[in-house]
Design a protein that fits this description.
658 residues, alpha+beta, Immunoglobulin-like, 5-stranded antiparallel sheet, 4 helices, 36 strands, 13% helix, 31% strand, elongated
Length: 658
Amino acid sequence: MTSSTPRGQVLVILALVMVVLLGFAGMAVDVGRQNAERRHVQTAADAAALAACREIIAGGTDADAAAAASEVAMTNLAGSPSGTAATIATPPSYADQDGDGTIQADELVSGIVVAGTTVRVAIASNVQTALVRVVGVSSLDAGARAMCQLQGGPEVPLVVRRYTSPPGPGGSFLDHVATAATSGSGGVDALDPRGYDGRVPASEAAPGPTFQLYGPGSKATNDSSFRGFIALDVRNFETTSSRVYYNGVAAGTNPNTLKDMEGAYFVTGYPGPAFPAISVPPSGATQVAVISGNSTSFVVGQFDDSYVAGDRIMLAVYDGTVMQIPDFAIVPPAEITLPSTTVAPVNGPTISVTRNSEFSSTVTLSLKGDPYAATIGHPELDILPDPSVVPPAAGKMSEPTWTPNVFVPATKGTNVTMTGMQTQSIPPGIYTLWIDGESGNPYYQQRRVPVAVRVQDDANGDGDYNDAGDTRVTRDFSFANAILDGSTAVLGGTINLPLAVSTGSGSSNWGSGPLAESQVELSWDTDSFTTCSLSPASLGMGSITFSTSLVTPATGAGAPSTLSINTAGLSQGCYMFTLRGHGTNSDGQPVNHLASVRFTVAATTSSGQYVDIIGFAVFEIDSIGANNINGHAVSPIYADPHDPGLRRAQRARLQPWS
């Protein structure tokens, strides 16, 4: 039987199939050439964009950056795997790719564009086809694009305290972003959070003083537990309900989980989103949650893996005050110095009271004594009776007059003076009082901060305590290196806080005087146990103990003891109590220090504590210790993280094109 299909028709079909098969084969070959060329061009675009960013960091102009990008691109484009001559248009060319009738920055087709701290590089390249040409495709697009930006914000999750002992002037006041020579003059600028009040801004030629960027000496002025480790992934504290979480962080993430994640940023860098320019008053975009405690393993250990002395880094700066919504904050003085007996009433230092924009109540200030001193058998340590008596009895003092008082604090801080204090035969020594602040309708809040009172004999009443017959009090101890904040993720968990009792050298050394010093006795005031809002609370079945309650103050890191808190019986929440240390120094003088210990039980990161970022500055690392990072400012403080003055410390990062 013969076939009914003509032989000529079979040949035609076979020829058509061969063309299709040849087209597919050609497509595979030519697409492979296209992919190889595109990878080659993309490498050149990435390198060019990074080169331009680095030129900007080095201080080059936009033209310098574009030239650097062009040079690096052309060098990398040599040796094309497909023999293609890629091009970079001058001037740059655009195309309305989305069809909306306007040209956007990301519609660059070919060219180099430098705009502020952003660089875009687009390289045009077309691979001429060899085999797929038979199906009518003569060329394939192999162009590539890259965008580089200077990191616009802190490189790591640290925020640096601007001031020591604000509001100044006098005492130990320091502005860390002013020159070392002028950093102690003037005071906090009441009008501008980045103002200098006559001081000279730090610069490379005249840097600021060396201080602890992070560590025991970097505590917030009103919160000893905050050392500068912030939760970059939890922002926006404008209202009681506003919280914004970034980078996949879930609301209510356990603090230790967040610390673990944040610690990685010291090695990998913060992925963003970056901070915007600072506004006054601060917006929610520049308010960040705090992570309490001296997290050495998360901060210093990770930082030491990536940085060395001499490195420069851009960091966010805050004024030194921790806030809460709605809240006011008391910024205490470093200490109050009083004569043992006053001939005439004397004035104390100035304090500052600040608030956030949500807070609108009046604040009433008072100075409180140490009523729990009697429970440890030392009622003489309570030098301020309640109510205050004028004139005071022997061994006592009177409360100051506060000016102003019963006032709504300014968001930038209200300076309040203490005047008219009197004393009567108080033995020279160091005592501790509490500055209390209470607010009324509509926000009933109470804040309490300890302040040391140094009582000395002033024979002639001139206030300098250095004349013949004067008695100075210099031998002291502190909890500066102690960790006074902790947390447990579970109900009934135990929290162990490493304490350290430190002393200075020379005339400030605890045991270098003519008499035998005592050990410092550690204890906690049972009646001081409250919630973090100072409402009375009970420890329940739990207990608070010390690994050793008697320690001899030591120089350096200090003499150790461990404070253990068994939280059995406590519900979820935040709690506080008073840590006490007292003893007699080697000059035979009593020294009594109080500190607030705060801890959370099964709590989350959204407790509402935050700091306002007031600007950005460049710091040079001086040293990295076992639990601290030291450095100094080499730039002024700027509102805009993209300011050219900060570029020497910014990092170039490739970003998605759109």
